[in-house]
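Instructor's aside before we start: the two examples that follow are unrelated to each other. I chose them only because their records fit on one page, so don't look for a connection. First example below.
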Amino acid sequence: MKEYIKLLKLCKYGFRFKLNLACFLIFLGVGILIEITSKGNNMLGGFYIVICSMYMYQFFISLSLTDFVQSSGLKYKLHVVLPVVANVVFCFILYSFVAGFRFLVLKNNPADESTMVTTILLCALFIIVLYIYTAFAYKYFIVAVVVFCITFSVAMGVIGTDPSAYCPDISYGCAVLIGYAAVFLGGLAEFIIGKLLYKKPLSERAFRGIFKSQIE
């Protein structure tokens, strides 16, 4: 745990940390704003909030590019273990916020339960997609982006129609539990994929887009 905390503090020395931190705060702020104004009925609010956990993965990956890490025994942990741990912890916290806020809204608007169930399940779906995306993005950037865009477009198509039409006959509480399962199962999938791809070279396309100054 002490090593994890120490490395978390060192993330500020990773490449473009301030820019990525700013993006983290912007996504989080926009997500919270959408959640409040839509009263939890817009899936985009939850999406923007949970996507912020992905930046924790990115912070560790960027730190792994430093000479200090390359010349030490920390490379494996920063490529496979710690990014997943950080992603799961922050995703759990952020998802809990979304689920808790919508539960409070639902207490005053029980008629919205079917919509809430659909949007929280879609949020769970995106959690899985984001885990898999981050696991592949730094190795196979183009493939990861294409798959993510297709999944996102399909989900947006669902939301563009009547969300309640896609709602399974389950309670909001059950839908929330499915979301928590997605948090941990997605983290497990991310860890397994990361372990399998550990020896694969990092995608130059990914790092030109995110850490261009390091590649050039």
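Example two begins here.
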Amino acid sequence: MSTWERVHAEHVRVIEGLRDAGTVIDQMVERIVGCFRVGGKVLTIGNGGSAADAQHIAAELLGRFKQDRQALPALALTTDSSTVTAIGNDLGYERVFERQLQALLQKDDILWALSTSGNSPNVLGAARLARERGAVVIGFVGESGGDLAALCDHVLRVPARTSERIQEGHLLAYHYVCERVEAAFA
């Protein structure tokens, strides 16, 4: 088996492993649609590739995915380099998301946290604060779920152990979420 064939087979196995995830993903869609309908917003977070995914999600919701429709209030807390580096320098990197949420998060909002390990200290701190404030926490994690899974109201566990395969599963699922949310507002 060539390297490409091995990688392709791993990808197919992971995506196939998400076949029965529709119920939990549809619950996430319902919560996000409900959040927007009552004037709430979605705040996305993650590190590294998950930060890029957080930005991707916010862009799809705020801008558009496939259809013209109203702008939906979504914000990635990974994008403001001055804020992230100031908080990281002054308060510690483990607080870069939590500190932003202290100023921005309201009860009707959703925190959408992406972490392949489920154990990133800055993501965990943000999820704890969101729960304390009564906001909904959606988590996209890997197979183990890490500590993040227990802090989430809704969690998608991708059946993989490596970041690249987990993120491939996250991409499929969040594109589905964006499509369904958009359809509710188109």
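The longest strand covers residues 110-115.
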